[in-house]
């Protein structure tokens, strides 16, 4: 058997070292990509957290408004009942021939007119607010994608 001549007994070591260097470079590149992904994920999570905070704040504000409206409606119902009772009493006084101060009655009617104007303004503002919230709750459907161009144009 003839002896083989080994010209580079450690040639494989150089090749393995070179491959390990390439793997190390690829791992460094992947590490950089993972870092970018983590940064993007962090930015997305920050935005999601802020969006949730915005939704929570809006929910709190709307819930407070609803509670306030319910309290004011209850108060208005009480006041409406009182006005009805008072008007019946005034009509009874007039029917009985008792004098009613028209100056006081005119002042009362003037304050009622001011309340009516305020209610109209509040109602219009509430309509706008409800419409705005409804638009957020029911967004329009996205536009369909454009039709593809005809072939052979």
Distinctive features:
153 residues; single chain; 2 helices
Topology at a glance:
Blueprint: H1 11-95, H2 102-137
Question: What's the main sheet like?
Answer: none
Q: What is the tally of beta strands?
A: 0
Helix/strand class: mainly alpha
In N-to-C order, the SSE pattern is HH
Percent of residues in β-strands: under 5%
So what's the overall shape? rod-shaped
**Residue windows where pLDDT falls under 50 for at least 5 positions:** none
Cα(first) to Cα(last) distance is 76 Å
Helix fraction, binned, reads over 70%
Average pLDDT number: 85
| Rg (CA only) | 40 Å
SS field, number of helical segments = 2
Structure, briefly:
The chain is mainly α and 153 residues long. It has helices spanning 11-95, 102-137.
Report on this model:
With 153 residues, the chain is mainly α. It has a domain at 27-76. Helices cover 79% and strands 0% of the residues. The chain has helices at 11-95, 102-137. The radius of gyration is 40 Å and the shape is rod-shaped. 0% of the residues are buried.
């Amino acid at each position: 058997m003839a002896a083989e001549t080994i010209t580079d007994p450690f040639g494989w070591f150089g090749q393995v070292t070179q491959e390990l260097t390439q793997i190390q470079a690829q791992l460094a590149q992947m590490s950089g990509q993972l870092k970018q992904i983590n940064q993007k994920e962090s930015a997305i999570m920050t935005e999601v957290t802020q969006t949730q905070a915005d939704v929570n704040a809006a929910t709190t504000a709307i819930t407070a408004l609803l509670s306030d409206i319910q309290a004011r409606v209850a108060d208005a119902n009480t006041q409406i009942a009182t006005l009805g009772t008072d008007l019946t009493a005034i009509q009874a006084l007039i029917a009985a021939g008792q004098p009613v101060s028209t100056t006081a009655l005119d002042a009362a009617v003037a304050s009622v007119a001011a309340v009516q104007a305020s209610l109209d303004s509040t109602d219009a503002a509430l309509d706008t607010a409800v419409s705005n919230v409804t638009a957020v709750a029911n967004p329009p459907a996205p536009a369909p994608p454009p039709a593809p161009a005809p072939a052979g144009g």
